[in-house]
Request: fold
Amino acid sequence: MGIVRTIAGAVLLSATVIGFASPAWADDLSGFYNVTRMGNVTAPGNTAMMWHIDLCGTGCAQIRDEYGATWDAHLTNGQWLATRHTPDAVNCRNGTFAPGTSQLVLDTGTNTAGSPTMKGTIISTSDGPACGSPTPITAGTVFLYMDKA
Reply:
């Protein structure tokens, strides 16, 4: 019986620590972030920009990118997830774009100074046939690194 109580106590303590660690970090999430975007971007090389995050409730954040577009992100299993449908989700690389859905996935962490950082990806898929392809296409992955400004 003592072992069962010890295990139950350890499980409860672990759940409490995990439950309180996340909201404390999320309180520091709001603000401006320096963002470096790499991968499938129009400009060659890395593209630096500034994004802004506002909390919209528990496990909810509005992420505004450099163009003013808003991603409504939700914390799921330790990752911030958001999707957005746009008329120019997929760059066909021939001067045209295709409508589709983009998915943003961000993992959180901290830098050596203890400030919030995030890294993640954006993957976009066309609604249907696009860019000369008879089937929907998925654009190359865009990699993001965000460091609180």
The domain at 30-148 is CATH 2.40.128 (Lipocalin). The radius of gyration is 19 Å.
